[in-house]
Amino acid sequence: MRFLLVEDNATLAQSVADRLALDGHAIDIAASLSAAEDCLAVASYDLILLDIMLPDGDGRDFLARKRAALSETPVIVMTARSAVSDRVHMLDIGADDYITKPFDFAELEARCRAVLRRRGGSASNIRVFADVAFDALAATLSVNGQPRELRNREFRLLEILISSPDRVFSKAHLADRLFSFTEDASDNAIEVYVGRLRKKLDGSRVRIETLRGVGYRLTAQ
Amino acid sequence: MKKPRVAQSLRRRLLIQLLSVAALLSALIYFGVRAVADQAAEATQDNILGASAATIAEELGARDDKIMVDIPYAAFSMLGAVNAERVFYRIETATGLLTGYSDLPLPTVAPSQLAPVYYTTTYRGVSLRAVSLRRVVTVADRPVEVTIIVAQTRNGHAAITSRVANLAAGLGIGFFIVAGLLNWVATERALAPVRRVTLEVGRRGPADLSPLRQPVPRELAPLSAALNDFMARLRAALGRTETFIAEAAHHVRTPLATVRSQAEIALRLAETEDSRRALRAVIRAVEESGRSAGQLLDHAMVNFRSENLELAQVDLCEMLGHSLRALTPSAEIKDVSLQTPPLDTPAMVLGDQLLIESALRNMLDNAIKYTPPDSTVSIQLSQCDGYHIMEICDQGRGLAGADLASLSVRFQRGKNVADIVGSGLGLTIIQEVANSHGGKFSLVQMSEGVCAKLSLPCYVSA
């Protein structure tokens, strides 16, 4: 999916973009409102991440102005203002959600996904690997056409593994993406989720291989 | 509150000054009345004495070359009529006493032919009022000067004087009392505007910084203007502080966000377990600061507004729906399921929307934070005895024996939660919101986890 990130802090913008790129999204960065206007003029986006304090104006005014034209595009406001009144105001002017800086990337991803799901993203996002079909947005998995229910972390784990089949992911890498930093997640916790996901994939040709001391990879027989 | 330094009571000062004037006037009245009465009494006595002496003088005559003195009865009866006074007389010529008391004192100034001389003197230990008169009688074709002195004791005068003195004293005291009462009333009335202004300022809530509404007398106008001006400055300062806090939070959090994202990138590239641990610690610290900044801001807002609630009808059910929607992604990250009741029956309360939302958010946030991954947070909304009760139960590690009273102290956290990021302000905020809305907040340790219970009075439309 294609996201527009409007953020004037270059470091923050780049790291957010890097992180979202891991999920397979394409990110355009606009460092000002005028740059954002230019981007919107030439491309269409599935989601806009909008900072509110920008060098050439207030993101909220921008949103209020653009809301009508962007009726189809969900907007998540990223703000360092956390007062309750600010939060309420954000939703009033048409933001779909907001996230307070500094934020957890896991939370940002979760919010992006929740907003996209709520908006009922038009493009289907189904990825097929061997006899497994996976819809990242709807969070559904079907094995041989049979639907299987996934919990959030199982689905996140599968999403990461399926993004690069046959690539080995270290436990640490998976833990960083799966757990929020406020949790004290040990690497062992990953084993629990790998075990569960294996069960959900029972009966398919897709397997999760353990490479002792290295990590995991998704393969098909 | 610190007592102001009191220099001197305005009322007492005013009262003392007015009473001094009243006392002075009372004394003047007393002495004035006495003096006038004294003079009047003396003048009366003098008139009678004069008349008496004149009557005697009328009867003077000469026979056989001798001066005849025939004192008429009337001359004494007019004097003796009053108070059994005693009367003395002395009638003499240059050559000698004709009749009377030869040692009756003479006036210091000799009387002329025309005008009698009145004087006060002491004779035989008694105070007397006397008149001296001169008449010329022709004896054997020669004029002979006769001096007539008539004196009378002053008993009547003293009696009148003492009666008048009593009257004057009564008058003076009466005047003083009436004036004192009037002064007191006048002082109270004059100071009433001061009291009204005091009352108006005293009755205000701490957040009420509007100008004084009571009209003040012209003399108090500068004070009132100064007070209004001061409050306007205070209001502006408070407004600036609020904006400043919000700006400060923004400026603190923006670089924190950068630090955090950099640390996350570094973490992804980190090779050794040691550097990974260090970076995770950095990220946790950033998370903690960011959260604290937000909670401090919320706490300041709750503190500020709970004194001055912006009351409106709030539907707890609808608000719960909003809060749940906002927090669902956070719960999903941890695979925490939120078990919610059907949110279709409005639960109306009268309250400040921002405060209630803040409390609700904190309750949900706490439950999601403390409940372990893959567990359930259950939310219930019920109504009992005129209260809407919101119960949020987690499956976490519990309170470890700590009670709400100690946990709702600012920055106080449980002993068993060191590994979970928190600011120690969440429960304080919820507690304050409950208090300011006449509600109750409690934490109950269950066999598994904790139930947070917030009760707010139902709104009953009038």
Keywords:
heterodimer; A: 221 residues; alpha/beta; Rossmann fold; Arc Repressor Mutant, subunit A; 2 domains; 5-stranded parallel sheet; 13 strands; 25% strand; elongated; B: 462 residues; alpha+beta; Beta-Lactamase; Heat Shock Protein 90; 3 domains; 5-stranded antiparallel sheet; 5-stranded mixed sheet; 9 helices; 14 strands; 52% helix; rod-shaped
CATH hierarchy, class of the largest domain in chain B: Alpha Beta
Strand order of the largest sheet of chain B: 4-3-7-6-5
CATH class of the largest domain in chain A, please?
Alpha Beta
**Radius of gyration of chain B, CA atoms, in whole angstroms:** 52 Å
Element string of chain A (H = helix, E = strand):
EHEHEEEHEHEHEEEEHHHEE
Number of domains of chain B: 3
Helical proportion of chain B, percent range? 40-55%
| CATH architecture level-2 label of the largest domain in chain A | 3-Layer(aba) Sandwich
Write structural notes for this entry:
The complex is a heterodimer of chains A (221) and B (462). With 221 residues, chain A is of the alpha/beta class. Chain A folds into 2 domains: 2-118, Response regulator (Rossmann fold), CATH 3.40.50.2300; 126-220, Arc Repressor Mutant, subunit A. Helices cover 40% and strands 25% of the residues of chain A. Chain A has helices at 10-22, 33-42, 59-66, 84-92, 105-118, 152-163, 171-178, 187-200; strands spanning 2-6, 26-30, 47-51, 53-54, 57-58, 75-79, 97-100, 126-129, 132-135, 140-143, 146-148, 206-211, 215-220. Chain A has a 5-stranded parallel sheet with strand order 2-1-3-6-7, sandwiched between helices. The radius of gyration of chain A is 19 Å and the shape is elongated. The mean pLDDT of chain A is 85. Chain B is an alpha+beta fold. Chain B has 3 domains: 12-162, Beta-Lactamase, CATH 3.30.450; 206-308; 310-462, Histidine kinase-like ATPase, C-terminal domain (Heat Shock Protein 90, 2-Layer Sandwich). A 5-stranded antiparallel sheet of chain B has the order 4-3-7-6-5. In chain B, a hairpin with a 2-residue loop joins strand 6 and strand 7. The longest helix of chain B has 49 residues, at 10-58. The two termini of chain B are 39 Å apart. The model of chain B has no long low-confidence stretch (mean pLDDT 85). The interface between A and B is large, with 41 and 51 residues.
